[in-house]
TrEMBL record, chain A:
Family statement: Belongs to the ATPase A chain family.
Membrane topology: Multi-pass membrane protein
Pfam families attached to this UniProt entry: ATP-synt_A (PF00119)
GO molecular function, one term: proton-transporting ATP synthase activity, rotational mechanism
Cellular component aspect of the GO annotation: plasma membrane; proton-transporting ATP synthase complex
Name of the protein: ATP synthase subunit a
Gene name per UniProt: atpB
Originating species: Actinophytocola algeriensis
SUPFAM superfamilies named in the record: F1F0 ATP synthase subunit A
HAMAP family documented for this protein: ATP_synth_a_bact (MF_01393)
InterPro entries linked to this entry: ATP_synth_F0_asu, ATP_synth_F0_asu_bact/mt, F0_ATP_A_sf
Principal subcellular localization: membrane
NCBIfam families with a match to the protein in the record: ATP_synt_6_or_A (TIGR01131)
TrEMBL record, chain B:
GO annotations of cellular component type: plasma membrane; proton-transporting ATP synthase complex
Function recorded in the entry: Component of the F(0) channel, it forms part of the peripheral stalk, linking F(1) to F(0). F(1)F(0) ATP synthase produces ATP from ADP in the presence of a proton or sodium gradient. F-type ATPases consist of two structural domains, F(1) containing the extramembraneous catalytic core and F(0) containing the membrane proton channel, linked together by a central stalk and a peripheral stalk. During catalysis, ATP synthesis in the catalytic domain of F(1) is coupled via a rotary mechanism of the central stalk subunits to proton translocation.
Coiled-coil region: 56-116
HAMAP family in UniProt: ATP_synth_b_bprime (MF_01398)
Gene coding for it: atpF
Pfam families linked to this entry: ATP-synt_B (PF00430)
Membrane topology, as annotated: Single-pass membrane protein
Keyword match Cytoplasm: no
An MF annotation (GO) of this entry: proton-transporting ATPase activity, rotational mechanism
Xref: InterPro entries: ATP_synth_B-like_membr_sf, ATP_synth_b/b'su_bac/chlpt, ATP_synth_F0_bsu_bac, ATP_synthase_B_chain
Location relative to the cell: Cell membrane
Homology family: Belongs to the ATPase B chain family.
Name recorded for this polypeptide: ATP synthase subunit b
């Protein structure tokens, strides 16, 4: 589509949000939808296959699976929720981490080359429809409805007059902003990262094909930047998956604890 | 071109407006993945953790047990050694004591023997002396009577025997010497 435009005219059209809205492949099913399903298949196969070969002395393959599980379990869930109560939430945290991680890394895999979470619907599904209700559920089950609300809105040791200001702010942050920012963090990082890659790649292409003679070699610089940004992207994709799972564990921990 | 761009821009929905279909798909996909992993994969990981922990703890426990056993054995050996030393010292003491006793006994025996020998010699001497005195006394009487007979000129032997003169004389002598 974009190549078509470029072929048509000599003017450079910067890529924008529209480039993330890929046309449906068939029956209204789009690329990110397929990628999410693919990620589920990949992760399920990876862990189920690994779990069948687990032994006390790990092989190379099971060691990788164990490391991922171990990271989610000990470095995220146990670290944030505490070694007493983290166990029931380990599957959720590990699944969340690997789910976000694989979908992010899709942005770098050749041919696929699309980070699913640059469509805000997917992170929002996890934050707003999974973590946010879970946070309420855990808090209410632990402290009762009133206890949960008070626990979240009234920080301990704050003088009463200040509470008049603090409680609305806390309510806005906890009940409205947290699930949104949780999703927006990973969405924005993926969106921006992918956009940067597109910009540098297309700019290089444009410079090579359309620019006047002396400017053509500059396309190499553009592509070099695209490659450099790819490495940065790789880091950010892993980091964002970690942060997403970390925040989920953090919210669970906040719902469980008496004074946060 | 400009036209298409405008049309596309108009079509472009804002990227921060989520597609409902994607949210639903994301939720279903995630929950499905969570279910599959929780059901088929993660319990095995947890079991592995448990097994590994048990193995390590078992190993540590075993090592501790072995050490405790070794210490116990060492203690036993040391106790036995001390006992053996005490035993040997006791035996040595006993032996020394016994030797002392035996020596003492032997000495006593020897002294007894010596005393006995001395006593026997003394009594023998006494007996010999008595015998010699008796013999001498008899000889002396006979010689005295014989000499007296020669002086008197007749045999006084019968007379002397009859009257016991010699014996009485000798007894007097004895009693005189005893008095002195």
């Amino acid at each position: 589509m974009r190549a078509l435009w470029l072929a048509e005219g000599g003017e450079f059209v910067p890529p924008g949000a529209g480039d993330f809205n890929l046309p449906p492949i068939f029956l209204g099913i789009t690329k990110p939808m397929l990628l999410v399903v693919l990620s589920v298949v990949i992760i399920a196969l990876f862990f189920v296959m690994a779990s069948r070969r687990l032994s006390v002395v790990p092989s190379r393959f099971t060691f990788v699976a164990e490391s991922v599980y171990d990271f989610g379990r000990n470095n995220i869930a146990r670290e944030l929720i505490g070694s007493k109560e983290f166990r029931p939430y380990v599957p959720l945290i590990v699944t969340m981490f690997s789910f976000v991680l694989v979908n992010n890394i899709f942005g770098l895999i050749p041919v696929i080359q699309f980070p699913t979470f640059s469509h805000i619907g997917f992170p929002l599904a996890l934050s707003l429809l999974v973590v946010y209700p879970l946070w309420h559920y855990i808090g209410i089950r632990r402290h009762g409805f009133a206890g949960h609300i008070k626990n979240q809105l009234v920080p301990p040791g704050v003088p009463k007059p200040v509470l008049v200001l603090l409680v609305p702010v806390e309510a806005f942050v906890k009940f409205f902003m947290n699930p949104l920012t949780h999703a927006i963090r990973v969405f924005a990082a993926m969106f921006a990262g992918h956009l940067i890659l597109i910009v540098f790649t297309l700019a290089g292409q444009y410079l090579l094909l359309e620019a006047s003679g002396p400017l053509k070699p500059v396309s190499l610089v553009s592509w070099a930047f695209a490659i450099a940004m790819t490495f940065v992207e790789a880091l950010i994709q892993v980091l964002q998956a970690y942060i997403f799972a970390l925040l989920a564990a953090n919210y669970i921990s906040a719902a469980l604890s008496t004074d946060h | 071109m400009v036209n298409t761009a405008i049309v596309l821009a108009a079509e472009e929905p804002s990227p921060i407006i989520p597609h409902v279909s994607e949210m639903i798909l994301g939720l279903v996909a995630f929950l499905l993945l969570l279910w599959v992993l929780q059901k088929f994969a993660f319990p095995r990981f947890e079991a592995l953790y448990k097994e590994r922990t048990e193995k390590i703890e078992g190993g540590i426990k075993k090592a501790e047990e072995a050490q405790a056993k070794a210490e116990e054995a060492l203690e036993t050996y040391q106790a036995q050694l001390a006992e053996a030393r005490a035993e040997s010292a006791r035996i040595r003491d006993d032996a020394r004591l016994e030797a002392e006793q035996i020596k003492e006994e032997l000495r006593a025996q020897a002294q007894d023997e010596a005393a006995r020998i001395v006593a026997a010699g003394r009594s023998q001497l006494e007996a010999q002396r008595a015998q010699i005195v008796a013999e001498l006394r008899a000889d002396l009487g006979r010689h005295a009577v014989e000499l007296a007979s020669r002086v008197v000129g007749e045999s006084l032997e019968d007379e002397a025997r009859r009257r016991g003169t010699v014996d009485r004389f000798l007894d007097d002598l004895d009693s005189v010497s005893a008095r002195n």
